[in-house]
Amino acid sequence: MSSFLQIKIYRHKFIAYVIFVVTIGLALAILTCAMLLNQWVGDARIEAANAFAGVENELQYDADRIEAYMQRIYSNPSLMNDARSFLNNSAEDYLTSRLQNSQFSQPLVSFPEDIKTYLYSWAQGEITQISLHTNQYGNVVRFNDNGIESFMFGLPNTDETFHDTILKGFVYRKKLSDVAQGSQEFGELRFLVSSDQIFKSIQNYRLGKAAAVSASGDIYLIGNGPAQEMKELSRLAVENERSHGFISKGLFKHNYFVTFPSTKFNFKFVSIIDLSTLIQQHARMLQTIFLIVLATMICVLLLIVYNLRDDALFLHRIIQSIGRVKTANFTPNRPARYRRNEYGMIARELDDMIQQLDKHIRNEYLLKIKQQETEMKALQHQINPHFLYNTLEVIRSTALVNQDRDTADAIATLGALYREIVKKENIISIASELELLQKYLEIMEFKYPERFYYQVNVEPALLKVPTVKFWMQPLAENFFVHGFSASNEFNLYVVNGWEADDHYVLEFVDNGRGIHEERLNTIRSTLSNNDDTSSKSIGLRNVNTRLHFFYGNSFSMKIENNEEAGVKISVKISKEVTLECTNC
């Protein structure tokens, strides 16, 4: 993934695809949720319409029952006479009048009992009050929840009992006239249909919040919810000129309303749908939709990443190949699988071009190798006289001071060293080169007894690696020339070697004087640029040049100061170009 994002073309494409996919996904999710929300609001609206239709049907049924009962009164003279008697302003007057108008040959008919039998019971308790009125007062028959009637006589028409409010119910008014007397009106019947009973019939509907609002502004609440808030919303809905719409009560509080005007009475049925509550009720479905959309977006992005990453790998490999050619690194790269497209064709042709260049350069290298060997021998001979001079000076000084057998041992070690130098080929193993270095270090121990010590810690895996002859001694000699202090009681030179994953490492470490930072930078620049014009650091420069001739770009040398004291020279040799020295 990191290599894929490193290529600017595909990084920008990927960001564009992410923005596009996320935008489309969110748009589809929001559109789907909006459609579902609209459907749920529509379902709630249909539910409210059905509930309102139920209320209208119940009111119509009651109206039909009342009409039928009026026909019953007109078709029964005895019942009509008893109703006329019921207009008396007291119970005693009513009872006296009905006895006076009764005939012994006919059974007594009771208007209140007839109302209970044929109207209250017939209407299933919805008609809870019937009153018979003159111009000044009215007499009332009222039924409680258990169907037990109670009577009130002589109540003024302005009494609270006769106030027409939706909180109590709906009032049907019917004029009462006597046909026998030329249809002369003698009273008015008022039938109160209980709002509690009417709206109780729609309690099975999923309304949420609903109300009935009369023309006078009275509000009968249906369903649960804060009464004050519901009343305010109902008033706003009724005052709105539209039959449906939205009411906002804050940033996250939106309500949908729908109103239905009654054809029977002067009131409006209002249904309030809280959108936040509606969303909470269907939260699981909405979460499922968002999870599906999220999973789809992730799958699409993974498919895009797969295709872009595959193309990016080919382009990255092409860029790497061009970079290798620019640095003259023509070593064969590991084979790769290429697609059968333009990228694959370019990558295959580029790999083939690198192989052809490598063959051509190798042929040219073979023609120049003799010249390089001559230069290496010249460099080596430039070092050897300097070393011989220094060594002989050491032996001379020691012989003058000690005049003992140690001088003979030193001369023997020097002779063995030069025999090895003359006898062996220019290409030897690391093990043989370490032997030459140790003989030199033994001579230096002889020169500085009890002042100089050395250690060689090299893993066996490095011993058979081939190398050029006599390059470790100049590194050690630099220590004695620039870093060694005869006044110091403990001068140490350590050689470490180990095998890493893809290369070998040799370290030459001392505890002498370090190198000034400015001088160290100059040395590093000389080594990195292969600058032969400098007259200083001839030992390091010659060693670096000889090893570079032998190993090529698979070799590197680094020189740095130790944190404690002294200098550390690190030599890395790649495993790709090193074979075991079988003839060394």
TrEMBL record:
Residues 315-362 form the HAMP domain. Signal peptide: none annotated. Its main location: membrane. It is a multi-pass membrane protein. The chain crosses the membrane at residues 14-37, 285-308. It is found in: Cell membrane. The keyword Calcium does not apply. It comes from the Bacteria. This is Two-component sensor histidine kinase. The keyword Cell membrane applies. Pfam families: His_kinase (PF06580). Keywords: ATP-binding, Cell membrane, Kinase, Membrane, Nucleotide-binding, Phosphoprotein, Transferase, Transmembrane, Transmembrane helix, Two-component regulatory system. GO terms for molecular function: kinase activity.
